[in-house]
Write a structure and sequence with these properties.
The chain is of the alpha+beta class. Helices cover about 55% and strands about 5% of the residues. It is built from 66 helices and 19 strands.
Length: about 1600
């Protein structure tokens, strides 16, 4: 639209044409050539005017169209101006106008195109040729369109070609011609194409220096090859032209492309023939010959060969050979290049005929290289020729040369002196292959090669090649001709030749000769061995004496002698190794004498010292060598390390070098050759004293520690350990001062660490300890700490360690608390705290203990250290606290508490917390799961995992802090055990008494008051049972019951109470008696709140008895009957169950009445005891109908109040149960309706019933109810209303109550309760300690005792830290049972297996029932041997072992004040079946296993297959009463954080302590890791007990605003 509008706008303002007809019909862009214009151009006007007008129209007609027929009119008007008679200027103006007219009106010409073509073709005026070419170019559209004159364009171009050869427009003409061929090749005749190509080749040859013309000519040839067919007549000139152009660098690639296209056509074979003709006929044109050779080579065997050509190589090679007759250097160069390419590409596939022609060409080239013509250009030809020789030689070596080898090597040998060394080396190899031992003169052939190329040739590589030939011959036939070769070739050549090998100036040759002698010596067992070694020694000695620095020949010799010594040590004859050992020792001493500091000398010393330090000796004193895998040792049966003591002393005192030579080597040697290792040790001491090279010291430090573990080698040779210790300390001081590598320094500290195992033979103990103490302040403090740990174990009875211990502890206290030092420092302090090392710290003062705890407390920071380090730090703190004297514990308690609080505040601030303590009811941070579920962890983000780990670590830290405070509260003023041992008398006295439990801070206080047993005691006295009371429990020394019985004033048990306090770290129990006289509080039945609502419950209760009458009368009758029969009333609350009491009760389901039996008799008429199962069986049939009736009445209205679980009473409770039950609800009366009807009445009754008790301030639960009734209501509202209190009646029997208590094993009767829909109040009253049964008892109320003990502490129960009374219900009972099942000390179970000789399978290892004597000593030291049947829980935790003999009769147990470890010793578990299932049941379920590996082999990690075994403590017994202890983690084990510098070397006496300590730390690491990751184990019993106590708050619904704080009783 825009363009159309623009056109209309232009038409509007355009000047109107004079001709109105044309102005309306023409396009705005067209012009009108009117009649006047034509007239102006006609001949009627003057020439000047016409030419002027043509000039004006030239630009117009070139850019705008004219009307129809205007072109014809113009041409008619001006054609006369092109006559030859007209001036050149006139013709030029007309021709220019005509060119512009054709350009502008090209599409409108029509038939005029042919007319204008004829005009151009017939206008044969030479001056106008350029304009004619322009008109033709425009007329053909740059050669693209020849329509109307397609038959004439070819001849025209062919006719113009000779004229254009010398014209300046040649390039334009060639370009036009190329386009015509490109777009109109089909219109061109073959003769025209041939002529054009021939003329083009001529032009190309003529204008070879003009790049533009050559390029255009090549384009024309390319167009012909692409779009037409090259005539045969044009083939010769085309190939000739391409041969010329390919020589130059500018058009070489283009020329090859054209030739490859040409040869790829049907003229390819004709083209090859033409090239061969050129090579044979054109001997005067070297460029033409070069191009022909190049095209032949590239097309037939080049990298871009023409695949369509099938010419054989022999068909063209003679032509190349013929071309060499010209003798031109460039032709030879092209020929040698072509031959090089032929041999490289096709050398392995050439046949004999082809190789013959190739060798002829190479011979011709060789002649040229040797001639004078090669002085200028022959160097590059020679290089290529020698390269060809090398390629052919390579084919000869590979066996793929099919030509005449003799002819070729004869040719190559002509250039031996001029050829490169590589060719000479190949020639040597060819001559070496001609040496055949089957020939008679093979020794002479070998000697000729060695003399010609080793002795006479000065080139190093050639001489080395000759030596290689000798070495190859020796290695191939030495097993047959070794002696002959050594005597005939080697010894004459190197021993008798002049100059001798040691005087040879070529160090490379000397090195090769030394290596040759070393190789011969490896397999030589005859006397020639010493001759070979002497040659090596001469080379080394001459070099050491004459040169300032050691050469590589000496390095090769000495390193080779080291390897030779390793080999000869295990092979006969043994005196070979003795000779080599002396050479090595002397060389090291000579180096230190020369003070050689070169790098080669350093490497030699490294190899020698590594060899010396890898030597080992077995108990038979046989010398062996540690393999490169550092695990296996190969011992020699021929070489020993022990000599007579006099010889050893003489050699050590001798200062002169050891004699070595051929005479000494031939001395007679015994069958077993002794080697004096003390000489090597002396050189080692010399190294420590004089060495300044860090690499040598690094090697010594790396291997010396392992060498010192072999005590047989060290002690049998009587090495100077004190000097070694002194020098090691000096080296360490120097390394610390110079700031050398930390790894090297750690290696030397590890050496000191190993040297401590020689404490019995070491006199410089104090110097060693002082060095380790100084190292604590350096970069290797970790290694020093572990070394100090071993020193503490090994030297605990030595005076140096006792003197330096305070200083060492002071230095340790100065260490910063870092992750790197956490493990070693804690392990060191852990070992120091044990009883085995108690003599060391027996004299420590109070400030020393403060220093120890100041080291431990920083590692309890969970923000800096892992959970393992935090846990280990607390465990070591516990161990130390119970170990310090009592007089220091109070101050230490305050010190530790203050430090922990400060650290806790800092840690909380660093985490952005408020610094407050953890909540009382803290949920478990890590959810427990039975098996690891990695998909759950993968779904969590990294940030969530990090937050979870930080939260878990902080929670664990807070819990351990609370445990620490609790433990210190327990041990600050006493050393009482963590579990009480209650006497049978107290158990009998409190049996059936009143029991209540309270939560007081972090403890559960259970108080049980005894019943008055006056009548029972009298009965016991009459039957003689009182006399046996003291014999039953020997612990009751001055029995208070005896005196009370004599006085007769009170019954036994009155006023007595048992207090049991369950805390995270201990269970404390004591028995007390109220000496105040007074009547017990008695409450009538009417005063008991049975008929009122409690805790928001208004549901009434109706009771009935099977005998009829009211509940009140029935209860009174039962109480009177019990008192009259001398029975005791027993009430045992579920919340007050003691782990040491057998009186356990649990709620029971409403059950049928018991059969008619004497209530108090558990026996039948014949005296047989009735079991509880029999009673249940008889009862089931009697009450079946009544159960069915009750179920029908309940129906759909049965609520949770009536749904109780039928559970038998656990344990062996001697309880008698009544035979009454509660009424069932009436049909049609729901519990809700019954509650609404009697709500008001129940409230009144409850108020009257509770008023006497509310006035009694000794009832704490009611006081709590008054102070905070909402809390109590919330608590009781969540309690199950389906539980009722058991009414337990004591039997009336002639037997004494005490005898009945101890002899009864099964419940003798059972109480049956039937709850009604209104029974919620009864259930609440039954759980309420103020129930009727308790208040009518003669026992004290436990609340009275609790108030006297805790009432004043809590401000009369008025603050937020008030104790919480635990309800007596089934859930609370189970929670306390779970708490009681957790020991109040740290428990660990460790596996211990013995691996005998040759045992590799699981059954073989587990089947061991005995071990070696050292193993037995180890088992005796690792723990105490205990009889399983004598172990009683909870005092002893057996880790799952049965006490009935299934797992053997004995086991090992170790314990201290806070830890108990049971060892599952496989050899003590008895001989099981072949599957060893019972043994693996215990050992396979342990995290840590101690393996006493006495097999002499490496213990595989998968012998005991188990998913839980994570760590193996492998104990390997060594000689001289020493052992190697190493920690190995199983594959896939993620346990981290265990400090390990090992392997450790420890004596037999201290092995149990070290193994136990490593096992404890490893097991603690496994427990901590699995608790945090999987949650399937308990990391700490103390923490778990603390969590269980906290969970009790949640069970009773305790408000978070009233959290109880921990009470410190110290």
């Amino acid at each position: 639209m825009a363009s159309e509008f623009r056109k209309r706008l232009q038409n509007l303002f355009r000047r109107r044409s004079e001709d109105p007809e044309h102005s309306l019909t023409l396009d705005p862009e067209d012009i009108t050539i009117g009649v006047d214009t034509v007239k102006e151009l006609s001949r009627e006007n003057p020439l000047v005017h016409r030419l002027l007008r043509l000039k004006e129209l030239t630009d117009i007609v070139a850019k705008q169209r004219v009307e129809e027929y205007a072109v014809e009119s113009i041409w008619i008007a001006i054609k006369d101006l092109l006559r030859p008679s007209n001036p050149l200027e006139t013709r030029s103006i007309v021709l220019a106008f005509l060119e512009a007219l054709i350009r502008g009106q090209y599409g409108e010409l029509g038939l005029l195109r042919h007319h204008f073509f004829r005009v151009v073709a017939m206008h044969n005026i030479e001056e106008d040729f350029a304009q004619r070419l322009g008109i033709l170019t425009e007329l053909t559209g740059q050669g693209r369109n020849v329509q109307s004159f397609e038959q004439d364009i070819g001849p025209l171009l062919l006719n113009w070609m000779p004229v254009m050869a010398n014209h300046e427009k040649l390039s334009a003409f060639l370009k036009l011609t190329v386009n015509v061929i490109h777009f109109n090749a089909s219109y061109l005749e073959e003769s025209v194409i041939s002529g054009l190509v021939q003329y083009t080749c001529v032009i190309c040859d003529r204008f070879e220096s003009v790049s533009g013309v050559v390029e255009s000519c090549l384009e024309l040839v390319d167009s012909v090859l692409r779009y037409s067919c090259l005539p045969t007549s044009a083939l010769q000139p085309t190939i000739t032209t391409l041969c010329h152009t390919v020589v130059g660098e500018t058009f070489s690639h283009v020329s090859w492309q054209l030739m490859s296209k040409l040869l790829g056509t049907h003229l390819g074979h004709r083209g090859i023939y033409t090239l061969c003709e050129i090579l044979q006929d054109n001997a005067s044109d070297p460029c033409l010959l070069q191009g022909a050779i190049f095209f032949l080579g590239e097309s037939l065997w080049g990298s871009q060969r023409v695949s369509s050509l099938k010419h054989s190589f022999p068909s063209v090679l003679p032509s190349i050979l013929k071309a060499l007759d010209l003798g031109h250097p460039s032709v030879f160069y092209k020929a040698v290049l072509s031959m090089e390419r032929l041999i490289e590409k096709e050398g392995q596939r050439l046949d004999y005929v082809t190789w013959d022609l190739v060798l002829s060409i190479l011979e011709s080239i060789s002649v040229f290289v040797e001639s004078e013509k090669s002085l200028v250009n022959g160097s590059r030809v020679a290089r290529k020729l020698h390269h060809i020789f090398s390629c052919v030689e390579g084919s000869c070596e590979s066996g793929k040369f099919l030509g005449e080898a003799k002819r070729f090597f004869s040719l190559a040998e002509r250039f031996t002196c001029k050829r490169p060394e590589l060719c000479a080396l190949t020639l040597v190899s060819f001559r070496a292959r001609a040496i055949d031992p089957s020939a008679s003169d093979w020794i002479q052939s070998l000697e000729s090669v060695l003399i010609r190329y080793y002795v006479n040739d000065a080139r190093t590589n050639v001489r080395l090649k000759a030596l290689t030939v000798l070495e190859a011959v020796l290695s191939s036939i030495r097993h047959t001709f070794e002696d002959l070769l050594i005597e005939s070739v080697v010894l004459p050549l190197f021993h008798s030749s002049t100059p001798s090998i040691e005087e040879d100036g070529d160090v490379d040759v000397r090195q090769a000769v030394v290596q040759l002698h070393l190789d011969l010596a490896f397999g030589c067992t005859n006397p020639h061995f010493f001759s070979l070694v002497v040659v090596i020694e001469r080379v080394v000695k001459r070099t050491m004496e004459s040169e300032t620095q050691i050469g590589k020949d000496v390095e090769t010799a000495m390193i080779g002698l080291v390897e030779l010594f390793k080999y000869k040590l295990l092979h006969i004859p043994p005196h070979h190794s003795y000779c080599l050992f002396r050479i090595l020792v002397n060389h090291v001493q000579l180096q230190y004498k020369r003070q050689d500091t070169s790098s080669r000398a350093s490497r030699i010393r490294q190899q020698i010292f590594e060899c010396f330090l890898r030597l080992r000796a077995n108990p038979l004193h046989q010398l062996g060598f540690l393999c490169s895998n550092n695990t296996t040792v190969d011992y020699s049966p021929f070489v020993t390390c022990d000599e007579s003591e006099d010889d050893v002393l003489n050699k050590r005192r001798s200062s002169r070098p050891l004699p070595i030579g051929k005479a000494a080597c031939f001395a007679a040697m015994p069958h077993q050759e002794p080697i004096c290792y003390v000489n090597a040790f002396d050189s080692l001491l010399m190294c420590l004293q004089q060495e300044r090279d860090g690499d040598v010291l690094a090697v010594v430090g790396k291997f010396l520690s392992a060498a010192l573990r072999n005590k047989t080698l060290m002690l049998a040779c009587d090495v100077d350990l004190d000097t070694l210790c002194q020098l090691l300390c000096k080296v360490i001081s120097t390394l610390v001062k110079d700031g050398d590598s930390k790894d090297c320094l750690e290696d030397f500290y590890k050496t000191l660490f190993t040297l401590t195992s020689y404490f019995g033979d070491l006199k410089r103990k104090q110097e060693l300890l002082e060095c380790l103490e100084r190292g604590l302040s350096g970069r290797c403090s970790r290694s020093c700490l572990l070394s100090i740990k071993i020193c503490l174990l090994e030297m605990n009875s030595e005076s140096p360690i006792k003197r330096l211990l305070p200083s060492i502890l002071s230095s340790m206290a100065k260490l910063s608390a870092t992750v790197n030092l956490s493990g070693p420092l804690l392990e060191c302090l852990q070992v120091l705290s044990w009883s085995e090392l108690e003599p060391l710290h027996a004299g420590c003062r109070e400030k020393d203990y403060h220093s120890i705890f100041s080291m431990l407390i920083p590692y309890t920071d969970s923000t800096k250290f892992s959970s393992l380090i935090v846990t280990l730090a607390f465990h070591v703190t516990f161990s130390w606290f119970v170990r310090i004297p009592l007089q220091f514990r109070k101050s230490v308690n305050q010190f530790v508490s203050k430090r922990l609080d400060s650290l806790h505040v800092l840690a909380s601030e660093s985490q952005g917390g408020s610094g407050s303590g953890s909540p009382l009811v803290s949920p478990r941070i890590i959810k427990r799961q039975k098996s690891p579920n990695f998909s759950d962890y993968a779904m969590k983000s990294v940030d969530e995992e990090s937050k979870k780990q930080l939260t878990a670590s902080a929670s664990l830290r807070d819990e351990l802090k609370e445990v620490c405070a609790d433990l210190m509260a327990h041990y600050t003023f006493s050393n009482v055990h963590t579990h009480p041992s209650r006497s049978n008398t107290v158990r009998w006295m409190t049996d059936g008494g009143l029991t209540k439990s309270w939560l007081v801070g972090r403890s559960v206080v259970t108080i049980t008051t005894a019943l008055e047993r006056k009548d029972q005691l009298a009965s016991s006295s009459r039957t003689g049972t009182l006399a046996s009371l003291h014999s039953i429990d020997s612990l009751d020394r001055a029995s208070p019951f005896d005196s009370a019985a004599r006085r007769g004033d009170i019954g036994v048990g009155r006023g007595w109470a048992d207090v049991l306090v369950r805390r995270p770290t201990a269970n404390i129990s004591w028995t007390m008696r109220v000496e105040n006289k007074g009547e017990p509080v008695r409450a009538s039945v009417a005063s008991v709140p049975l008929f009122g609502g409690v805790a928001g419950s208004d549901t009434p209760l109706s009771l009935s008895s099977d005998h009829g009458g009211s509940v009140t009368s029935f209860a009174l009758r039962r109480i009177q009957a019990i008192r009259g029969g001398g029975g005791g009333m027993k009430k045992g609350g579920s919340a007050g169950i003691s782990p040491y009491s057998s009186s356990l009760s649990s709620p029971v389901r409403p059950a049928p009445r018991w059969p008619t039996l004497p209530v108090n008799s558990p026996f039948t008429g014949d005296g047989r005891r009735i079991s509880r199962d029999e009673i249940l069986t008889e009862t089931a049939s009697a009450d079946e109908e009544e159960e069915e009736k009750e179920e029908e009445e309940e129906g759909e209205e049965e609520t949770d109040v009536c749904r109780t679980t039928a559970e038998p009473i656990p344990s062996s409770a001697s309880t008698l149960k009544g035979d009454f039950n509660f009424e069932t609800p009436q049909l049609g009366e729901s519990p809700l309706e019954r509650s609404l009807i009697n709500m008001q009445e129940q409230k009144d009754v409850a108020t009257r019933s509770l008023s006497p008790l509310l006035r009694n301030k000794s009832c704490p639960e009611l006081c709590l109810f008054l102070n905070d009734p909402s809390a109590v209501s919330a608590r009781f509202s969540r309690q199950s209303s389906r539980e009722a209190e058991d009414v337990l009646l004591s039997p009336t029997s002639p037997r004494s109550p005490l005898e009945t208590f101890f002899e009864s094993k099964e419940p003798e009767s059972s109480l049956t309760l039937t709850a009604t829909p209104s029974a919620s109040l009864l259930a609440t009253s039954a759980k309420d300690p103020t129930s009727i049964s308790q208040r009518d008892s003669s026992a004290l109320d436990p609340s009275f005792v609790f108030m006297q003990l805790y009432g004043q502490i809590f401000g009369f129960l008025g603050d937020a830290n008030s104790p919480v009374l635990l309800p007596q219900e089934e859930g609370m009972e189970r929670a306390i049972k779970v708490l009681d099942h957790l020991p109040a000390f740290s428990t660990h179970k460790i596996g211990l297996i013995y691996v005998g000789n040759g045992q590799r399978t699981e059954n073989e290892v587990l089947a061991n029932s005995w071990g070696s004597s050292r193993y037995c000593q180890f088992v005796n030291g690792i723990g105490s041997l205990v009889r399983l049947s004598d172990c009683q829980e909870p005092e002893v935790c057996l880790g799952g072992l049965h006490r009935t003999g299934e797992d053997g009769d004995f086991t090992c147990l170790w314990k201290d004040g806070v830890t108990q470890v049971v060892f599952h010793v496989a050899t003590l578990m008895g001989q099981q079946t072949s599957s060893m299932t019972s043994k693996k049941l215990h050992i396979g379920n342990n995290f840590v296993t101690i393996v006493y590996n006495d097999s002499g082999e490496i213990y595989p990690p998968d012998v005991i297959k188990s998913r839980l075994n994570s760590v193996d403590i492998i104990v390997t017994p060594l000689d001289m009463n020493s052992n190697e202890v190493a920690i190995r983690f199983r594959e896939g084990s993620a346990v981290v954080g265990i400090a390990d510098l090992g392997p450790y070397v420890i004596s037999d006496n201290r092995l149990p302590v070290l193994a136990r300590q490593l096992a404890l730390v490893s097991d603690l690491a496994c427990l901590t890791y699995r608790e945090q990751v999987y949650g399937d184990v308990q990391g700490s019993n103390w923490v778990e007990r603390l969590r269980k106590i906290k969970q009790l708050y949640g069970k009773v619904g305790y408000s978070s605003k009233a959290q109880a704080s921990y009470i410190a009783f110290t």
